[in-house]
């Protein structure tokens, strides 16, 4: 038997809002309750991840950071500001951006930056295997340019881009330890993680931040795949929110929303360093 009070409230909402607006209200309330991403780089949690990694990274070696899907460089620019505030001028950032026009804009942004000598610009994409792949250009400098075609975005151009892996790149550049990897690869994020399996297995990567969204659908990947890759290698996973990291003991179907969010994977020593909150479903 239905709850009479609940049914009364639902009837009032249906009558006052109609189905379309009721769905919109439900989506808004669900996203607020789940602390899903609001799209603002300065307020959805990325800031404290960068700041805490910079503050807690060992002082006996330089910081090594990978910005995968650097776009026009906003994330790296804020990272460099964090390093300056923390008086950590020993950071080296490797910026990966495969789009030709976006790569030009990225380099121009940092031409006169005080840290330009510690920035390594790479006009390529990272993936599961080395090779080549088509990049679908929605428009110049677009943050939605992707290695996976999205029919609803109707790309205006295509570019053949070079692929490398984190493991092979690190071996070639003599990188033995990575403090932070930020991945924003428009649906290709899991492929980037898979290309770092050796370093992950050796626990040579401290903290990873990667984007999860509906673009994973076009890559035929699931958040579950990230858990199956990272959990057995000793990494804790959680969703990045403005209130802290919502850690999970393991994958659960409730997590597979394809709603845009950033996730953090880190070694156990980092778990308590980040602010955190309990999952609502525990």
Label this structure with key terms:
single chain, 282 residues, alpha/beta, Rossmann fold, 2 domains, nine-stranded mixed sheet, three-stranded mixed sheet, 9 helices, globular
What report would you give on this structure?
The protein is built from nine helices and twelve strands. The protein is α/β, with parallel strands linked by helices and 282 residues long. The chain has two domains: 34 residues, no CATH class; 241 residues, Vaccinia Virus protein VP39 (Rossmann fold, 3-Layer(aba) Sandwich). The strands form two sheets. A nine-stranded mixed β-sheet has the order 3-2-1-7-8-11-9-10-12, sandwiched between helices. It has a three-stranded mixed β-sheet with strand order 4-6-5. The longest helix is centred in the first third of the chain and has 31 residues. The chain is globular. The model has no long low-confidence stretch (mean pLDDT 93).
């Amino acid at each position: 038997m239905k709850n009479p009070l609940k049914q009364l409230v639902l009837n009032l909402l249906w009558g006052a809002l109609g189905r379309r607006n009721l769905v919109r209200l439900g989506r808004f309330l669900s996203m607020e309750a789940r602390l899903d991403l609001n799209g603002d780089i300065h307020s959805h949690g990325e800031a404290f991840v960068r700041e805490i990694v910079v503050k807690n990274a060992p002082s006996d070696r330089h910081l090594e950071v990978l910005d995968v899907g650097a776009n026009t460089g906003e994330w790296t620019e804020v990272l460099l500001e964090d390093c300056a505030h923390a008086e950590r001028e020993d950071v080296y950032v490797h910026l990966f951006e495969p789009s030709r026009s976006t790569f030009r804009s990225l380099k121009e942004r940092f031409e006169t930056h005080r840290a330009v000598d510690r920035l390594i610009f790479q006009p390529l994409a990272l993936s599961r295997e080395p090779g080549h792949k088509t990049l679908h250009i929605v428009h110049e400098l677009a943050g939605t340019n992707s290695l996976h075609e999205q029919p609803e975005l109707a790309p205006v151009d295509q570019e053949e881009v070079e692929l490398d892996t984190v493991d092979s790149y690190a071996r070639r550049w003599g990188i033995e330890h990575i403090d932070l990897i930020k991945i924003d690869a428009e649906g290709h994020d899991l492929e980037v993680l898979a290309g770092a399996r050796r370093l992950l297995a050796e626990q040579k990567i401290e903290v990873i931040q990667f984007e999860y969204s509906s673009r994973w659908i076009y890559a035929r990947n699931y958040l579950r795949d990230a858990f199956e890759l990272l959990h057995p290698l000793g990494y804790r996973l959680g969703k990045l929110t403005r209130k802290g990291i919502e850690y999970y003991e393991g994958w659960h179907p409730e997590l597979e929303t394809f709603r845009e969010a950033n996730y953090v994977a880190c070694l156990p020593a980092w778990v308590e360093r980040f602010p955190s909150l309990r999952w609502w479903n525990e």
